[in-house]
Amino acid sequence: MDLDPARCYGRLSFTVPQPHPPICGTAFEKKILSILEQHGLTEFQAAEKPTIENGFSRLFEFPSLTEFFSTRKALQQDPAWKQVLHHLEEECGASGSTDFRLGNFDIFSTPAGPGETTPAGPGN
User: Fold this and answer.
1) Cis amide leading into 5 (omega within 30)
2) Which of 2-6, 38-42, 83-87, 94-98 has the lowest mean pLDDT?
3) Among 3, 28, 10, 119, which Cα is nearest to 64's?
4) What is the mean pLDDT of the chain?
5) Is the dihedral of CA 27, 41, 45, 52 positive or negative?
6) Residue 102 φ/ψ, nearest 5 degrees
7) How many CA within 13 A on the CB side of residue 24?
8) Whole-number Å distance between alpha carbons of 85 and 91
9) Measured between alpha carbons, how far is 77 from 40 in angstroms, rounded to an integer?
10) Strand order in the sheet with 101-109
């Protein structure tokens, strides 16, 4: 994967129980991406994409970890985002299912930061 080690990447993913209606596949493209674009997010075009079984996974690039957390918070507080997630649960027939995880948006990769070196000692 062509990730810049100086930048932060977030992954949005959701899983649905199998079998699921076809709407679950097209719903991501039509409903979710439009809201993400309103928040300034465009999918990171990697040669190799992370995949998850029975679901969808998209990477987004951020200039910093602070920017990732700020964007994620704004997305989680967006009423339109909450409504789309609720409708997708209903359309995919997954309301109340423990197999259904929708809208998981977490850090995929981020720089470690400067840190500091501590000698480990001679060992035993």
Assistant:
1) no
2) 94-98
3) 10
4) 78
5) negative
6) -120, 130
7) 21
8) 10
9) 15
10) 55-62, 8-15, 101-109
The token pair that represents 72 in the structure block: 């994620």
Alpha-carbon distance 116 to 124, whole Å? 24
- DSSP states of 16-47: -PSS--THHHHHIIIIIHHHHHHTT--B---S
What are the Cα distances from residue 7, in Å, to 58, 86, 91, 110? 16, 32, 36, 6
pLDDT tens, 60-114?
999 989 999 999 999 989 999 888 888 777 776 655 555 555 668 899 999 887 7
Closest CA to 109 of 7, 40, 2, 14: 7
**Helix, coil or strand: residue 5:** coil
**Cβ contacts of residue 72 below 8 Å, gap of 6+?**
10, 105
